[in-house]
Amino acid sequence: MNLRNNWIILLVGFTYISSAQSVVVDVRKKTYDTTDSLVIRSLFDEALTNGKSYSQLNYLCKVIGKRITGSQQAENAVVWAQKEVEKYGADRVYKQRIQAEHWIRGDKEKVSIEGDREILLKSCALGGSVSSNGPLRAPVIEVKGIEDLKNYDVGDFAGKIVFYNEPMDKKLINTFEAYGACVSQRYSGAAEASRYGAVGVLVRSMTTLTDHFPHTGSMGYRPGIQKIPAAAISTQDADILSQYLVDNDSAIVTMEFNCYTADRTVKTNNLIAEITGSENPEQIIVFGAHIDSWDKGEGAHDDGAGTVQCMEVLRLFRELDIHPRNTIRMVLYMNEENGNRGGKTYAQEAKKANESHICAIESDRGGFSPRGFSIDARSDQIAQVASWEGLLEEYGLHFFKKGYGGVDIGPLKIEENRVDSSLFLMGLYPDPQRYFDYHHTDDDVFENVNQRELELGGASMASIVYLVDKYSYLFR
Amino acid sequence: MNLRNNWIILLVGFTYISSAQSVVVDVRKKTYDTTDSLVIRSLFDEALTNGKSYSQLNYLCKVIGKRITGSQQAENAVVWAQKEVEKYGADRVYKQRIQAEHWIRGDKEKVSIEGDREILLKSCALGGSVSSNGPLRAPVIEVKGIEDLKNYDVGDFAGKIVFYNEPMDKKLINTFEAYGACVSQRYSGAAEASRYGAVGVLVRSMTTLTDHFPHTGSMGYRPGIQKIPAAAISTQDADILSQYLVDNDSAIVTMEFNCYTADRTVKTNNLIAEITGSENPEQIIVFGAHIDSWDKGEGAHDDGAGTVQCMEVLRLFRELDIHPRNTIRMVLYMNEENGNRGGKTYAQEAKKANESHICAIESDRGGFSPRGFSIDARSDQIAQVASWEGLLEEYGLHFFKKGYGGVDIGPLKIEENRVDSSLFLMGLYPDPQRYFDYHHTDDDVFENVNQRELELGGASMASIVYLVDKYSYLFR
Known about the structure:
Two copies of one chain form a homodimer.
Chain A: E1 11-18, E2 23-29, H1 34-50, H2 53-64, H3 72-88, E3 92-100, E4 103-104, E5 109-113, E6 119-121, E7 123-125, E8 136-143, E9 161-164, H4 175-182, H5 184-187, H6 189-195, E10 200-204, E11 230-233, H7 235-248, E12 252-257, E13 260-261, E14 266-275, E15 280-290, H8 300-319, E16 326-333, H9 341-352, E17 356-362, E18 370-376, H10 379-386, H11 389-392, E19 399-402, H12 410-415, E20 424-430, H13 435-438, H14 451-470
Parallel strand pairs in A: 8-9, 9-10, 10-11, 15-16, 15-17, 17-20, 18-19
Antiparallel strand pairs in A: 1-2, 3-14, 4-13, 5-6, 5-12, 7-11, 8-12, 14-16, 18-20
């Protein structure tokens, strides 16, 4: 635990693979020093003993509340965050105008199975869904995911409500992989079913739990295809509906939702705050999270946690008087949940202004105990980040692997579509076991975030920003 | 993620340290094969999709409940566990008689500050404390930990209640280190203060949280020193009492407890269940947890989680038809919390019977997301275990470091005090951030255990038992 006083110049990071065929040896330079270990210790010490992220999250969740794009709460959150980071003393704090769709849930959400005794299913509209235009009554047909549609005859879905019931695979240790494997039924289920004449869609909630919360989330239609209403039902109720179909051969379901997308887009904002680089102010390391949330619960893990962790990164740099060489820029993106206009606008504006980004880092996987970073980069860049494991493992960070960066930072890489680009992306990777217990539900509330886990994530973000900044020349 | 089909014979585990002075290269044999990766995958798959540990924990917590040594619930737990593991088809299931003290909390627990308005402090007696014999009224003197006593004059404590108020250090990432650093005030605080004439002791609860739960735990007296009552107060109330002393110079506190230790010891039991080794039945790999708990909450994390994980190991071996080469033996120890008679008796009986243990493994750090194992062993043995990281890291297991084994398995090593002994100890190391939020309180209940985290821990225990068994010859 006290290695930090001993090392001076070290070489580590061997990967050695030997088989009958080949021997590969990859030696990387370990480029950290005693100063780095002291700085990182001080970041964690400050976050754990004097951290502000937990009380900030309390405010964001309990005073401001859930904050879907276009809502007053979303606007309030941006105003609040701006004031807070101005207090921390960022060099530049400004809003970036974006334009986004405004979806409104409405006050009518009901799904029930018809019968001698009506069975109510706990449900909520998927974000972006059209209204059912009053009660929509139709027979139900159950399928697994999208892929399962092709196992039916073209006429099987006409006039019916399609019930997508593919569960998340509990065997996958990384629950995000399980989510990724079947979220297409939620996003594209309505568009696909509508092609075959379906009149509505019910989707099993995206969680490994069997519980009573419906999990909302985004969905989209396709041009030229009839828009039909789509709703999530809780996993408990998905099991009940599925069993009902086994016991009764058929079921008539009524779904009634009055959600809608407003005719006019809304003008809203990303919030940006910077500390100017002392050596290369024109080179940017961006780190961020999304300040909007679904209109369920309080958006505590998704992504209140990431929001306050990023604010904490700025505070830690100021509090500990760390002067970055490059400009470090926090972006709190609006509209990640239903349109990603924040991330896309940021990327477009960056391109227009011909800005140069070294790296983009995101925290949007919940405020759980951090384990490392998922890295979307060249293999030498990944190896470089992984070479810091010796510095970071005492803080529980051991995962430095190729993987997905994040929804908000993705567009930056797409816009910077150049062969010679060295831009790379990283996503904070917290322990993933509990994320989908709360994701997009009324249970995603402040009480379900642990203070120490949240604080460790903020310090981890600050540490990686510090290291990427200091050693940015190694990532070219 | 799909490495498992590729490797055949591999050499890994390089440690390379280079400085101006020296080069050390340590090459270890990686001794696992494709079969191992398939077996471990099947252990996790079964635990995550068909695991029984969560429903077992539900029963242990909600039907049986808290279970301090000597209570009817503790006896019920042993009877229940015996029936359950018999159902799984262990080759031998038997009880091991132990004799232990029986401490009873009583129905009177009150601490208050005297004044115009009485201030009640949330409190509970420490396990083993004597009664206050009616209300005990005395002035309070605040100190930090045990070490702080020597900063006072000998006469300062006479007739007073000593208030130990050393907080756990939030900066330590491993909260068990923070606990270890100041738990002496709870265990020995009364004995030490009594030497200087103190009449009672209040101890700040052992948690990094500021909350309203008093955390109980064990304490001990010293022969020849007057026994004085000792209680924990919540961290919130410790802060209130400390501030009161700042504002008022002095405080008169009344403490009233009617707890006591029964005159006669009780006869109770460890529960043991084995699968006989196919090649070396006389060689034993023991793995265990403690079935008793404090008389607070439901003993869910401490150590209901470990208990059901160990039962799950047996079930997994039977369900997947894994035949160990050596005998694998589950021990559910009684009395870990207040006397450790279970662990000590097991070790003594093992010595008497001249049994040969390869390894002892314990799960007693809560049912949180597993990260690896803390290993009390020779460095070559630690290196051997660590060489399995390539197999286990996809399950989130990355921590294989020298460290403490566990309270229940410790006596086995002490009894086997031989120079040539190759016995080594391992403790499952789950993420430690939340453990002390619940530890020894009314909040240590089933609802605070996450199903997937619990199940991953059971599969981790099964995996390490499988590997140590298969490669036991490498640990001699």
